[in-house]
């Protein structure tokens, strides 16, 4: 404590550690209300098929426009949302909104687009999750093949028995399953054989230096070849240069997603993007 110069007011100096805690607490209460205040928005990042150059679909990426005017990136609030359980209502909102946007795209003349949605571990652990997905499809009127659920490798291998059952139920609905951030976990490639999934997403960390680093290139090639021999298709994430695109094309990677072909954008921008590519 220190006495304010002249006055009789006591000032409290919070040590660094607990001010971090205060910050976290403030952020948690703000996040709690972000949904109902309409501060959460969605961006969509194009995924392009390498064989045809056509737009395959888009991944849904959340943003938080906080009340003080700043845009907060998911890396800075998704972990907190996961720790507090807020990710469940937020994730539910993302799923509904994404499917509704996809319905707009279908109506705008893009019937076979695939919308990808990130599903967090807590959502995936809910036993009634397949029921939730079925209901969202029904309410938004998109077809199961229009929806891809992205589950990280980390989430998928946490409880194999649960994952096999859950993924089996989701696949039987007809939605696609992608394994996100593939390659950075410690799991062996073999478990991919056991899980009913369709798409492997190579983590950007392998794409970043694949031109300069022959180890990264070898890993990308191995993931692509192994996925193909298991009957899975591959999306490379974080493609930023034409050189990376060409190399991935040579490796017969199926799709790319990255700043080179398109940054995350609004739904309106995505419709315009699609029409522009379709007219090339
Ligand atoms: P992710 O699912 O692996 O999403 C890809 C991230 O890579 C996105 O970051 C995207 O903007 C970024 N990215 C794409 N292309 C490039 C590129 O060429 N270069 C570089 N440097 N980065 C690129 P973002 O939007 O910040 O999202 C980060 C993570 O937050 C996501 O990783 C995902 O795990 C999580 N996330 C985002 N939205 C949601 C959501 O609705 N629900 C959940 N549970 N997680 C979400
Ligand atoms: Mg993802
Ligand atoms: Mg990823
Ligand atoms: Mg990621």
UniProtKB/TrEMBL annotation:
Keywords: DNA-binding, Transcription, Transcription regulation
Transmembrane parts of this sequence: none
Domain (EAL): residue spans on this chain: 24-278
Key word ATP-binding present: no
Name the UniProt record assigns to this protein: EAL domain-containing protein
UniProt organism field: Cohnella boryungensis
Span of the entire protein shown here: 731 to 1010 of 1010
